[in-house]
Amino acid sequence: MKLKKYLNEAEFYEIIESRHKDPHHMLGIHTGDKGLVYVNVFQPHAKQIAVIARPSDERVLMEQVGHTGFFTVTLPQVTDYVLEYTYADGKVMIAAD
């Protein structure tokens, strides 16, 4: 399983193994290089997660890293967004991060 360059491997495994002492250090929205941001979410029961930017309502699917329940995406500068979770049973939930 290959991780994105902006993901710290040790912290990634601490998150998916529920051992990270400060999970929000890695989860949520973070500033990256060249004005981009990245959003990381750990939701092991989700089949798919999308970021919906506000106010444009642009919807961008997140990439799941392996089958770990850890999802990530890199976006242009976004400050306000919600997450759309889709579960295996077809249920969809929209929530703030």
Account of the protein in words:
By secondary structure, the protein is mainly beta. Helix content is 8%, strand content 42%. It has one helix and eight strands. The chain has a four-stranded antiparallel β-sheet. It is globular.
Helix and strand topology:
Layout: H1 9-16, E1 28-31, E2 37-42, E3 46-53, E4 59-61, E5 63-64, E6 70-75, E7 81-87, E8 92-96
Antiparallel strand pairs: 1-2, 2-6, 3-4, 3-7, 5-6, 7-8
As a whole number of angstroms, the C-alpha radius of gyration is 13 Å
> Whole-Å distance between the termini?
26 Å
**Strand neighbour order, sheet with most strands:** 1-2-6-5
Name the average pLDDT: 91
Outline the biggest β-sheet: 4 strands, antiparallel
Short overview:
This protein has 97 residues and is mainly β. The chain has one helix spanning 9-16; strands spanning 28-31, 37-42, 46-53, 59-61, 63-64, 70-75, 81-87, 92-96.
Provide keyphrases for this structure.
four-stranded antiparallel β-sheet; 8 strands; mainly beta
